[in-house]
Design brief:
7 helices; 8 strands; single chain; five-stranded antiparallel sheet; elongated; three-stranded antiparallel sheet; 252 residues; OB fold (Dihydrolipoamide Acetyltransferase, E2P); 2 domains; alpha+beta
């Protein structure tokens, strides 16, 4: 058995004295593990860093075996990802999200999204919003997609400001008013046709919303806790965005 594909490094673990087992997200074959011989060598360690893009060839006698990876570097961005807290935590947090999916289950759109987000994690104006959308995409692929396009009660696409915690569907201002204290806030940048960019307060609401559905549908049923990397990313993204807004604000 053999195949080649583009892949992004998610992490590695030691295997014996000189080798590692690498975990990658491939473009067409999903999350995949494989043995990298001499993976702890000086030449391979810089390549096997989370966030790097590689060309990977996998070989095994049988499809169900762990198999062996041969890797060629394509884009080494790990050093840049270490420059900002949003990048350091973000690459770890997205890896944790992808581990919720079955190994070797193709999710090409998540690969594309991961690739784009890794290029923008250093920018607090983009990192938080892109990460939230990635969480929503993972929820959808796990079978718990959110429907934020129209009001669950009336079908309208206007003035959507709530999300029902029961159905995961958007609710308009008027329809949700009697139950406002039980609703989750729908950030304007996620609403159907929304043209607003994410700001500090809307990101707080967005992170709270995705955390609620991840905990309810994924973490709690599996007996898992929230990734500490996610908590680190959320704090770093909000802090950086708030600082950026303060710097950009005109002086009195």
């Amino acid at each position: 058995m053999q195949w080649s594909d583009q892949a992004i490094i998610l992490g590695v673990r030691r295997h014996g004295e000189t080798s590692v087992v690498a975990e990658v997200m491939t473009r067409t074959r999903g999350r995949h593990l494989g043995l990298v011989r001499s993976g702890r060598s000086r030449s391979m360690q810089p390549v096997l860093q989370p966030g790097n893009e590689v060309e990977v060839t996998w070989r095994a006698r049988l499809d169900e075996h762990l198999g062996e990876f041969k890797m060629e570097p394509v884009r080494l961005r790990a050093a840049r990802l270490m420059e900002a807290a949003t990048s350091v935590y973000g690459v770890q947090a997205m890896g944790a999200l992808l581990r919720l999916l079955p190994e070797r289950d193709p999710h090409p759109h998540l690969y594309e999204a991961l690739d784009v987000i890794l290029e923008n994690l250093h920018d607090p104006r983009d990192a938080g919003e892109l990460f939230v959308r990635f969480e929503i995409a993972v929820l959808n692929d796990l079978g718990f997609g959110l429907d934020l396009a129209e009001c669950a009660a009336t079908g309208t696409r206007d003035d959507l400001i709530y999300v029902s915690p029961k159905s995961g569907r958007a609710v308009s201002r008027d329809a949700g008013a009697p139950y406002a204290d039980k609703m989750l806030a729908l950030p304007a940048f996620l609403a159907a046709g929304g043209s607003h960019a994410a700001d500090h307060d809307s990101l707080v609401a967005a992170f709270r919303m995705t955390a609620f559905f991840l905990h309810r549908h994924v973490y709690e049923p599996r007996g898992l806790g929230v990734s500490s990397a996610r908590d680190g990313f959320v704090q770093a993204a909000l802090k950086a965005l708030k600082s950026s807004a303060s710097t950009a604000a005109p002086s009195a």
